[in-house]
Amino acid sequence: MLLWLTDYLSEFVSGFAVFQYLTFRTMVSVVTALLMSLLIGPVMIARLARAQIGQTIRDDGPASHFSKAGTPTMGGALILVILVVTTLLWGDLTNRYVWLVILVTLSFGVIGWVDDYLKISRKNTEGLIARWKYFWQSVFALMAAVYLYTAAQSPVETTLFVPFFKSIAVPLGIGFVLLSYLMIVGMSNAVNLTDGLDGLAIMPAVMVGAALGLIAYVSGNTEFSSYLQIPYVAGAGELAVFCGALIGAGLGFLWFNTYPAQIFMGDVGALAIGAALGLVAIIVRHEIVLLIMGGLFVLETASVIIQVASFRLTGRRVFRMAPIHHHFELKGWPEPKVIVRFWIITLVLVTIGLSTLKLR
After folding, report:
1. Are 288 and 163 spatial neighbours (Cβ–Cβ below 8 Å)?
2. What CA–CA distance (Å, rounded) separates 222 from 228?
3. Whole-model pTM above 0.90?
4. What is the pLDDT of residue 61?
5. What angle do helix axes 335-355 and 295-314 make, rounded to 10 degrees?
6. What mean pLDDT value characterizes the chain?
């Protein structure tokens, strides 16, 4: 939106031409989203508190969490609004990828909003019935996957690239739709499972989003992609603006979500952010790299799967409680220690993921 305005104004004042640079607009999107979050956050928290839109705590959860009951939730709506508004302000609205990511993010946000609303209205942790949640996630994920497959302009856009290897590339054909579906739905639920402690999910999401923004920038640049020998995807660079907005909105939210949290993200934010990360990774053709960088989300999901499978098959639990962050809490780790250590793990994994851009 403002890209068009600054383009017009640059005809009269040359300084406005700087807004045509993708790197500058990405940095501006970070600052814009951050400032909006810091300004709107206190107002939103106060209104949610007055409306008694508070978190419901699991009866079988760690005892230390009972004091969190009633803390304002659905704060992820703040992230989504700021994320979308900032992207619309500074992104290129003629770019098809920008609109696709916005639509998928909002659609998964709606699913999360319904889930949160039902939990609040019923005063328990039972929200949207699981089969309906997965049904609508599947519908929106498949729509996005089919669109990317049918609208692909080159074989590169539907090929799976293996990190650390220059020549290993697997043409997926129609299998691209299945992989994309699994990435979007899988990451959406993985981030949601991780969102169980103050700031535990949002900071890793910010770090992974920042790395994906860098990858999007170099993937959409012919010179950089050629130099790094990574797939070139025309138009993908514009997603750096979206990722910049995610960084700013996420850090602004973390200001209020850090321990002890003044507000929780809720499914409305976690499901949407996870889906957005998965979709961006698909577009820039770095699905495997996302699984590396988002290893924390993968670990949290795997712990739930292992716990459920073990209990059903043997009647025994592998962990004291799943997802795995609760296991460490019940072992006696203070909540801040669990959070910061998981952040450190994510930072290391993101560094490893980014190293794949050069180590080939």
Report:
1. yes
2. 10
3. yes
4. 56
5. 120
6. 91
